[in-house]
Every structure is written in structure tokens, then in C-alpha cells.
Design a protein that fits this description.
Length: 138
């Protein structure tokens, strides 16, 4: 019997940079083996254009993504919740695996500052895939 598809939720305050880059990497590298969501405790109106540019350099298009509001339902429906600077805004439920990825915020930063953040996110997403026993597709 096949294992159920794990669901991962990335949460940051604005859901406009870090969490969107992480979700983009997980979608691209997970090859459909992981369900991916992202949300923010105080989402912005649009994705950070510099984060879009940084991901495009890796061949991943997040330009059409829209920031989403964090809900209890999204947390409860997730097997793994990864926070990135949202503090106590993320509700905690028993049985859910939680991680906090301390990352600089790309908001207001130029491409030279965002690239290292992007690269750190990619490394963490690859490690997350390995911990979920999912082989990265690239």
C-alpha cells in the first residue's frame, strides 16, 4: 500500500518571500511527491519581486503566486509546519511536526542579499525532502 503524500506548510509573516521561495523549491524538487502550501500571519499584497527574480535564476517561476492568510485549517491539515520568523502567530497542534528555519528576511533587499537566502532555503528544502524519504528530482 503506498504511503500517503505528506503535506508541508511554510509560514512566514508576509508569505511574500521566504515561504514562497521554500514552497517553490519544494514543488520543483519534490516532483509532486509532497503537497506544498504556504501562508503568512500578516500577508502582503504580492510576492517580493526580488524573490521572484532570485528564483527565476534557478528556473523556478513563483511570479504568479499570491500571498495567502494563515488559517488553523491549513496547520491542522499539514504533516510538517515550517515557520520562518512568524513567532507565536502559528498555532500548534499535537501530532504535527514543527521546524523553525531562522532566515534573513528578503524584504527590501537587493538581489545580492537575496541570493544567499535563496541558496540557504534550497539546502534546507533538500534536507527536508531527505527527512521525508523523498528523492529530489533535480
Amino acid at each position: 500500500m503506498p504511503m500517503p503524500t505528506p503535506t508541508v506548510l511554510f509560514v512566514c509573516v508576509h508569505n511574500a518571500g521566504r515561504s514562497q521561495m521554500a514552497a517553490g523549491f519544494l514543488r520543483a524538487l519534490g516532483g509532486g511527491a509532497v503537497e506544498v502550501r504556504s501562508a503568512g500571519s500578516a500577508p502582503k499584497d504580492s510576492i517580493n519581486p526580488v524573490a521572484v527574480e532570485a528564483m527565476a535564476e534557478r528556473g523556478i517561476d513563483i511570479a504568479s503566486e499570491q500571498p495567502k492568510v494563515l488559517t488553523d485549517d491549513a496547520v491542522q491539515a499539514s504533516d510538517v509546519v515550517i515557520t520562518m520568523g512568524c513567532g507565536d502567530a502559528c498555532p500548534i497542534y499535537p501530532g504535527t511536526r514543527y521546524e523553525d528555519w531562522e532566515l534573513d528576511d528578503p524584504a527590501g533587499q537587493g538581489i545580492e542579499a537575496v541570493r544567499p537566502i535563496r541558496d540557504q532555503i534550497e539546502r534546507r528544502v533538500r534536507a527536508l525532502l531527505a527527512s521525508l524519504d523523498v528523492e529530489a528530482v533535480a
